[in-house]
Design brief:
By secondary structure, the protein is of the alpha/beta class. The chain has one domain: 3-Layer(aba) Sandwich (Rossmann fold), CATH 3.40.50.620. The chain is built from six helices and five strands. The protein has a five-stranded parallel beta sheet, with helices on both faces. It binds coenzyme A. Coenzyme A (COA) binds next to strand 1, helix 1, helix 4 and helix 5.
Length: about 160
């Protein structure tokens, strides 16, 4: 059995933010490999297509050697098993995240006991971010470059101007 420590970092990433990136960077120094996992989440209506979101994540992580990007549809624990990952990486930003994360971590553990959820806290300057707030700021012409990469900021601008 391989002793490589592989973690998956799941989310909708619509779009990836500096808060997500902060968690990925912290995780990349703790695990041998991080697979950023784009969930095809049926309950959300994303602004960006799957391909656009993957392109933005790939660009954001291009300088981190042990990080790859994949998409998946279905149960997270099934995908983790396929990838031989034994850790699900999640960010905890505030108390408000706790209940939902607690429920997901325990349910995932119930579904597959070998999987452990590891929570990391992003730098405090990113604790109040989420993708919806960033889309709102961009929609009304605010500057989002402190919260997303320059590439994502440019994609947001184009998308919201209807040029993409
Ligand atoms: N920095 C900034 N924003 C962050 C963040 C961070 N570190 N971490 C999370 N967020 C934001 C996200 O962008 C998202 O914003 P939005 O709601 O405005 O789009 C919000 O916080 C919630 O993110 P998250 O909790 O990661 O939800 P998600 O929808 O991105 O991902 C899955 C949830 C994919 C992990 C979950 O639905 C899943 O596992 N699905 C697979 C099916 C399955 O196995 N279900 C059973 C699970 S028990």
């Amino acid at each position: 059995m391989s002793s490589e420590k592989i973690a998956i970092y799941p989310g909708t990433f619509d779009p990836i933010t500096r808060g997500h990136l902060d968690i990925i960077e912290r995780g990349s120094s703790l695990f041998d490999r991080i697979i950023v996992t784009l969930a095809i989440n049926q309950s959300k209506e994303p602004l960006f297509t799957l391909e656009e979101r993957i392109e933005m994540i790939r660009d954001a992580v291009k300088n981190i050697k042990n990080v790859t990007v994949e998409k998946f549809d279905g149960l997270l624990v099934t995908f983790a098993a396929q990838k031989k990952a034994n850790v699900i990486l999640r960010g905890l930003r505030a108390i408000s995240d706790f209940e939902y994360e607690f429920q997901m971590a325990l349910m995932n553990q119930h579904l597959e006991n070998k999987i452990t959820t590891v929570f990391l806290m992003p730098n405090e300057k990113y604790t109040y971010l989420n993708s919806t707030i960033i889309k709102d700021i961009a929609k009304f012409g605010g500057n989002v470059e402190r919260f997303v990469t320059a590439f994502v900021a440019q994609k947001l601008k184009k998308k919201l101007e209807g040029k993409m």
